Amino acid sequence: MIKKWFLLVGCLSFMILLVACKENINEFKKQYYEGKSEHWRIQLDVENDSERQYKISYIGTGKRPPIFNYEIYDEPGSNLVLNAGEGDLEKQEEFWISITCGGSCTPPLPSKIKSKIQWEGKTEELVMKQMKKTSNKIGN
């Protein structure tokens, strides 16, 4: 009788675990953001809940600056700079930032993400907006 009870409890626990895992898998939806200013474009591609990939491109006229500084404010309702650094375009057309979280990246991204780029004594602010992705890769 005790073996049957353990078997029943074990089967029920396994079924609950399977249902919970299935719901978590279906929760995440891919996200794509893009923002432009006069000289810059920033794109964010979120293919899974544990990694974010930003691409920064110079779209202005003339020679692209070899070095720039960026700030990305990707926490909802916050003016804290969570992602900042120096970008290098000296030998490449685009600058990539890959952020990998140890599990799910939290908090979830807002529908609009503010950012700022500084180069050669100039500053531009951009707002990335969540969009529908039209191709399979951020590079397109």
Keywords:
elongated; 140 residues; alpha+beta; 1 helix; Immunoglobulin-like; 19% helix
CATH architecture: Sandwich
Principal-axis shape equals: elongated
Radius of gyration: 21 Å
- Strand percentage lies at 35-45%
First-to-last CA distance: 63 Å
Would you kindly provide a written description of the structure presented here, covering whatever features stand out?
There is one protein chain. By secondary structure, the chain is of the alpha+beta class. It has one domain (30-131): Macroglobulin (MG2) domain (Immunoglobulin-like, Sandwich). Helix content is 19%, strand content 44%. The protein has one helix and eight strands. The protein has one helix at 2-27, and strands spanning 31-36, 40-48, 51-58, 67-73, 83-88, 94-100, 112-119, 122-131. It has an eight-stranded antiparallel beta sheet with strand order 5-4-7-8-1-2-3-6, with no helix packed on it. Strand 2 and strand 3 form a beta hairpin.
Short synopsis of the structure:
With 140 residues, this protein is α+β, with helices and mostly antiparallel strands. The protein has one helix at 2-27; strands at residues 31-36, 40-48, 51-58, 67-73, 83-88, 94-100, 112-119, 122-131.
Write the layout of secondary structure elements.
Layout: H1 2-27, E1 31-36, E2 40-48, E3 51-58, E4 67-73, E5 83-88, E6 94-100, E7 112-119, E8 122-131
Antiparallel strand pairs: 1-2, 1-8, 2-3, 3-6, 4-5, 4-7, 7-8
